[in-house]
């Protein structure tokens, strides 16, 4: 037997050849950074700074590029036309989610991580209906305004707890909408638990952050630790005849129908995910907005001139003032543009089948052709775009997505955030009312008298990017504003008593 025959018929060279192809980029794929055998580009997917690396690769390889993660393929859409074509026009093909070990444990009941099957469509349909603009025009809108009044009073009485007041407020709004219970304080169970669980989930889902060994018990915190505690509280309340307008009440009463019926466990998980999905991301967006406002007094001054023409010291801003206060909307859009909370992921079926599709929001928001001087915080860039995000997110022409400049802060395609209306209205109400009430600035060191510098680049890089804890100085604008705050907070407290545990 010749040596040549042995080599060509032995399984060993064939195995070496197969292994050698792992991590290799097929010539038909979009371009991308050079790969290494077996690992592909895994070594370049950093745990920190990935959003900046995506921008760098996009500049180098174009609007569509690819990464090889061993056998897996990631295609990055750093191009608005491609995003429109693949996630919206061909949305049926690109609306699934990538599956990995962490998601299979931590997100097994989370419809945000499911493929686009019938149950996913059913739950998204209910979420969109329950969190719709029409729902927020009724009692749910009154809930938001009441909680914002309590938020402003909290800032007035304990300004040093600024971060916790933000987290409490958004958690309380979400829990009232979903479970019918409010969080009177951050220390209250309803105030902090959802934030704790969301933080763990986002931390473990960050690309490149998975430790080689991690106990399943840690991940399972994100899978089901909240819902078994929330549901009995609702059941106990309902047994006593206390039925409220929450989704947890409407589902069993049949006033909120579902196309695919849910058993008790799935229903509880669905409700818990709605709270988890909205509270942490809204809090992160608010933390970013207040951080940039604190270092841009000129932006605050412009917003206050507008607010003072409409409200005055004896009237807090309300949602009915939205058309008269367009600059607040500009502030929200610019805050979501300059520090988007997360990138968006899709699993495709054509380029190639089962590849991961990622929308690099941070990089898209720094396209100099769309956003001149993108590193500058400048709400004025949105002055000609007065609509809400939901008005633009579904535009058929990607270059008319807010007249070319709309952000991707709420995602895109069939995976656009179903809580877009709740999130945007909470942001608007909290920012408008805080600017009405306070001058926001950096703290002054009491010993040296020096102004403490606020670092707008200091962010915690989990999947949900949010600022590192910071302090701000909140100066009440007048005694008249203080009197109005206390009056409105007293009214709000009376209204919110119906949602006490």
TrEMBL record:
Residues 228-258 are annotated as: Disordered. GO terms for biological process: small molecule biosynthetic process. InterPro entries: Cyt_P450, Cyt_P450_E_grp-I, Cyt_P450_sf, Cytochrome_P450_fung. One of its GO terms (molecular function) is heme binding. Residues 243-252 have a biased composition (Basic and acidic residues). Its cofactor is heme. Pfam families: p450 (PF00067). Keywords: Heme, Iron, Metal-binding, Monooxygenase, Oxidoreductase. The keyword Iron applies. Heme binds at residue 417. PANTHER family: CYTOCHROME P450 MONOOXYGENASE ALNH-RELATED (PTHR46300:SF2), P450, PUTATIVE (EUROFUNG)-RELATED-RELATED (PTHR46300). Belongs to the cytochrome P450 family. This is Uncharacterized protein.
